[in-house]
Amino acid sequence: QVQLAESGGGLVQAGGSLRLSCTASTRTFSSYVMGWFRQAPGKERECVARIAYTAGGTFYADSVKGRFTISRDNAKNTVYLQMNNLKPEDTAVYYCAASIAYYGSASAMYHNWGQGTQVTVAS
Question: CB under 8 Å to 23, separation ≥6 — which residues?
Answer without folding.
Answer: 4, 5, 7, 76, 77, 78
